[in-house]
Amino acid sequence: MLDVVESGGMVKVFLSEHPIYVNGEQDNRRGRKLRNGDVILVPGKGKVKIEQS
């Protein structure tokens, strides 16, 4: 968990102001479906890989 955004209401503002990369491609869509193996990078905050348990 990166704890980048404090609440769901702040996501829209955050995405409009910060680049987010999913699997190496910039993508700022709110509500995007993430799948097992996806890598999310938030520059200056960190990177996380989605892994299904």
Describe the 3D structure.
With 53 residues, the protein is of the alpha+beta class. It has one helix at 11-17, and strands at residues 21-22, 25-26, 39-42, 46-49. The longest helix is centred in the first third of the chain and has 7 residues, at 11-17. The protein is globular.
Provide the fold topology.
Layout: H1 11-17, E1 21-22, E2 25-26, E3 39-42, E4 46-49
Antiparallel strand pairs: 1-2, 1-3, 3-4
Number of helices: 1
How many beta-strand runs?
4
Outline the low-pLDDT stretches. none
Strand order in the largest sheet: 2-1-3-4
Order of helices and strands: HEEEE
How much beta, percentage-wise? 15-25%
Can you tell me the overall shape?
globular
Helix content: 10-25%
Cα Rg: 11 Å
Mean pLDDT: 88
Major sheet attributes? 4 strands, antiparallel
Q: What class would the helix/strand composition place it in?
A: alpha+beta
> What's the N-to-C terminus distance?
15 Å
